[in-house]
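WARN retry 2 of 3 for item q-0093 after timeout on previous attempt; input resubmitted unchanged.
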Amino acid sequence: MDKQIVFTKVNTAELLDVDERMPESGEVKVKTFFSTVSCGTERANITGDPSCSPGEGKQVVFPKCMGYSSSGIVEEVGEGVTSVQKGDRVVVYWGVHKSHNIVPEQNVVKIEDDAISFEEAAVSFISTFPMAAIRKTRLEMGESCLVMGLGLLGQLAVNLARVAGAVPIVAVDPVPERREEAMKNGADYAFDPFEEGFADKVKAVTDGGAKVAIEVTGVGAGFDGALDCMAKFGRVALLGCTRNSNFTIDYYRKIHGPGITVVGAHTIARPDNESYPGYFTHRDDIKASLKLCSCGRLEFQSMIKETHSPDDCASVYTRLVEDRNFPVLVQFDWNRL
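OK item q-0093 returned
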């Protein structure tokens, strides 16, 4: 039997026994070593946020299975699989929190550098979310970059903006500990969005306004606040999932007049098969993330704050639901079972 973390009902996670099977043609079976918790997405799903239902107005349905960024070793391959073989160290994307993942071959990327840990590899897929957002803004070296919201994606965005040559990088979050973490991750300035004169302070350190903004709060007020900080002709990537549409933007004054470009940056809004400038496939961005780690340009290990056995999933997800200061990067170690 396999073990799998399942959201069985609202605010409830359980580690369940599930049937195990062999991979079919074109599939790969991977023994999971580490899987990463995607805090925002998983909180929305376990709490029964209506925006996570299959369609508008549809009832939220349980059980739900999360865990789309993991790493492990290939145990078996189905007929026709050529890119990986038994024993390969791999990243699995769009899998689940499960002791074994069986996914299509295209959802497995080989870890070419043995120096990259399984822990870091399990972060690589999630890192491609802000990577895609930065690509879509066409950030250029020497341009200022505002990161609004410093959860996992925001912290990764700070790291990646530094790699991409943004300067200065302005990190924004109301939680002091997250601002401190962003400074360690490469931010040049960190501000509280609720402090008096916030937008003026951002404009002062960016010579009139940020050229690029990565909005990761998923809150309408966060988007509105980011627009107050933009330079003329600035570009804003909406990376956070703005699940509540009940907010108002002064589009004429904040977008239309200053010529702001706003681009949707959900990770599924990318090409399926072939990358092109500004728009890379999932596989190509995962490979880019792994290469950056291999060359020492990126480092995820220090970002990992907690590692738990899957047996502890109930208490981990209770904290995720109840504690708004839940650690930014938490993983499950499947070797502890």
